[in-house]
């Protein structure tokens, strides 16, 4: 099987692991920078070209599309979908997960536990917005933020009003969320493949910090999930339409609540902490699904 990994950097840990694991299982793998691809869009023959060659012999695409290139990367992925190539995560699903506001709305619609979340546009909405999420302390998040950047804990109402006003003054889109105090600066990353949580880790923020992101100095350890946590993670990934997802949840008094669903979850932290070969689970899933996909495509011809 020939697999294309859509990634801008072949030296990233996650990209290298995917390549190594797939090649060890006998597959041919090529890392393709989606920003260097260009597309022929017409009713006779859809195609994707890369460095002067048409990519017309790809059996499966594994997208590792960074947030900064979501629009163009999704366009390239969508072109492969239109060509009948199996894609591990589809473009529409990635788009849903990348839009934080839309993803929370979809999760709420499906009855999945969330921190109470508010969204507003005008400064006149601030007092009621703060009350809506239970008052201070509360968390303020930039919609476009990643890896903990643009996330602020406002411990008092005055601080919350000041931060919200500042963000709104910059025309920034923000979410205001209930602060889950009982989580104690920790969250859980559940790695979902298909309809199964294959690995999980607890991320703990460093002292004096409430953001547990590993990029911000958090630590990761193995953790055993409850049945409710597993079910929540699987349901959240399914809600987004993702076959592979990193679902971040908090242990709240009311049960597990979802913070975010990541469509390109990193592999280094989860494999190290959980001691699970997550990459092998991904490639095995691709192998199974490509056979089903190809049989389905043949039946349509």
Topology of helices and strands:
Layout: E1 2-6, H1 13-24, E2 28-32, E3 37-40, E4 47-50, E5 53-54, E6 60-63, H2 70-82, E7 86-87, H3 91-98, H4 100-109, E8 117-119, H5 126-132, E9 138-142, E10 151-154, H6 157-169, E11 174-178, E12 186-193, E13 196-204, E14 219-222, H7 227-240, E15 244-252, E16 255-262, H8 268-274, H9 278-300
How would you describe what is shown here?
- It is a single chain.
- The protein has nine helices and 16 strands.
- The strands form four sheets. The protein has a five-stranded antiparallel beta sheet with strand order 14-13-12-15-16, with helices on both faces.
- The protein is an alpha+beta fold.
- It has three domains: 2-96, Rossmann fold; 117-179, Dna Ligase, domain 1 (2-Layer Sandwich); 182-280, D-amino Acid Aminotransferase, Chain A, domain 1.
- Helix 1 (13-24) crosses helix 9 and helix 2 runs antiparallel to helix 3.
